[in-house]
Specification:
Layout (H helix, E strand, L loop, with lengths): L1 E7 L5 H16 L7 E5 L13 E7 L2 H9 L1 H9 L9 E6 L6
């Protein structure tokens, strides 16, 4: 599995961010090909001090190739272009392969 994570710093207008993100942006994201699962939260907390991020998003893909294909698809390009409409604080995008742990 491969994950895409987006970390959002505090926006200029948190209410606009929340409303636009749920009503407009997430519907675009869900159309990306190869997307297996996704989740988000506006309740980001730090274990000590203020949280450096306002919101977080995770998407799961079968592998890095599937994630790349999704991001390069018309739907992925549309979702990426939409970020400027709500994320006035910017966005940090990272991706990584998931390593399973054992107990």
């Amino acid at each position: 599995m491969h994950k895409l994570m987006v970390l959002y710093p505090e926006p200029a207008d948190p209410d606009h961010f929340r409303d636009y993100y749920v009503s407009n942006h997430l519907p675009l994201v869900t159309r990306m090909p190869g997307l297996l699962a996704w989740r988000y939260s506006f309740e980001v907390a730090a274990t000590q001090g203020p949280a450096p991020y306002f919101a977080v998003f995770e998407a799961e893909f079968a592998d890095a190739a599937a994630m790349t294909a999704a991001r390069e698809s018309p739907q992925g390009r549309q979702a990426a272009a939409d970020v400027a409409n709500y994320a006035t604080g910017g966005a940090v995008v990272i991706d990584y392969p998931v390593q399973n742990g054992t107990i």
